[in-house]
Specification:
Strand content: 15-25%
Strand order of the largest sheet: 9-10-11-12-13
CATH superfamily of the largest domain: Winged helix-like DNA-binding domain superfamily/Winged helix DNA-binding domain
CATH class of the largest domain: Mainly Alpha
Radius of gyration: 21 Å
Largest sheet: 5 strands, mixed
Number of helices: 16
CATH architecture of the largest domain: Orthogonal Bundle
Number of strands: 13
Order of helices and strands: HHHEHHEEHHEHHEEHHHHEEEHHEEEHE
Shape: globular
Helix content: 40-55%
């Protein structure tokens, strides 16, 4: 692939777009040696599926293990917190606060009508923050149920979607973050205690800063992709990208405009078969996923409950789903194709699953 030629004409094929995304996402080639380095490259990695996101990090860091990602979280090398789009993300510690401050006004505005439908207003949100702060202060790490009990003790209604809303807003408002699990139970801590404020940190980051970070780890991507990812308006997203000037490059493919941070070398060949988590940034990091699969196939990937299943990717295209079941001494894997997998593809999946086996520290059994 002659990337140099493509840059001169500002035109690329879909195949070239995919190859560059796989490179920038640290999937086809990754210099990352730690979980933090992988998270930094993506800027923020969607993380409500804890086990899945650990594998998202692991597949981008050769030699990393599932336990090592847990250790990185406990060591505060990566932070898990409600952030972009009001969704839990893994973010590097130095990025948590400036991203949070940047997106907070938009998040409050975007979710105002939803919160109102739950009977919540800003006064109630602030009251919940106060109770959560007092409950967690002193270095406590408490579960959702323990925070729920503390709120109810203060006569704050946590029924329906209200408790999830209190937890989510406490994250996007930089009150709490996720702490290490207690057994299989997730816990929360005060952000300012878990990650003390760095007085030397730069507080001048703008939406353009976020745009450059996004395009560095996700590009080529459209304005619509960035707006969706960060939760901003199209107008604000476009202005942020245009303000970057020569730091980014505009290209076209299939009649659409894409933006990326310029590259100096051709990406490696597309890495064949991949076993990715359902919420991996390769899929969830874009509003437009038409490059990855046909419309009918994309509909199959989004079940009514909104829980995305792990995806099988071949040469950059999604070919189906896969499931994992963790047994005592083995990992049971099952592939569910959109149509069918050839014998060659099945062999490639078996070979690729060795990476997942090493990450989990368990042998794999395909069923």
């Amino acid at each position: 692939m002659d990337i140099g030629s493509a840059m001169k004409t500002d035109v690329m094929t879909a195949k070239e777009i995919i190859a560059l995304r796989l490179l920038n996402q640290f999937i086809s080639h990754s210099p990352a040696k730690t979980a933090r380095e992988a998270v930094l490259q993506l800027c923020a990695m969607q993380g409500q599926d804890y086990a899945g996101t650990k594998w998202s990090i692991g597949l981008r860091v050769p030699g990393l293990t599932d336990e090592a990602v847990d250790d990185a979280l406990a060591a505060k090398e990566i932070i898990r917190i409600s952030s972009l789009r009001g969704t839990i993300h893994f973010i590097a510690p130095e990025d948590v606060r400036w991203i949070g401050r940047l997106i907070q006004p938009r998040m409050i505005s975007a979710f105002a009508s939803v919160f109102k439908s739950y009977g919540l207003d800003e006064t109630q949100i602030r009251k919940s923050h106060d109770v959560i702060r007092k409950t967690l202060e002193g270095g406590k790490q408490l579960s959702r149920d323990e925070l729920k009990a503390a709120l109810e003790k203060k006569k704050i209604d946590t029924s329906g979607h209200r408790m999830n809303s209190f937890i989510s807003r406490a994250g996007t408002d930089l009150v709490i973050c996720c702490a290490p699990r207690r057994g299989k139970e997730f816990t929360y801590a005060l952000l300012d205690e878990w990650l003390p404020v760095d007085k030397k940190a730069n507080n001048e980051e703008t939406l353009s800063t976020l745009a450059l970070r996004y395009l560095s780890g996700h590009g080529p991507a459209t304005v619509q992709d960035f707006a969706y990812w960060c939760g901003e308006t199209l107008t604000a997203a476009k202005a942020a990208i245009l303000a970057l000037g020569n730091e980014v490059e505009k290209i076209t493919a299939g009649g659409k405009e894409y933006w990326m941070k310029p590259v100096t070398a051709s990406p490696p060949s597309t890495p064949g078969m991949l076993l990715l988590p359902g919420f991996d940034e390769y899929y969830t990091g874009y509003a437009d996923r038409s490059l990855l699969a046909r419309e009918a196939e994309l509909k199959k990937l989004t079940p009514p409950n909104g829980i995305l299943q792990p995806i099988v990717v071949n040469n950059g295209k999604i070919k189906g789903n896969w499931k994992r079941t963790v047994k005592k001494n083995t990992l049971q894997l099952e592939a569910i194709p959109f149509t069918s997998f050839s014998d060659t593809q099945k062999k490639a999946m078996t070979k690729r699953s060795k990476d997942f086996s090493r990450f989990m520290g368990l042998p794999v059994e395909w069923i």
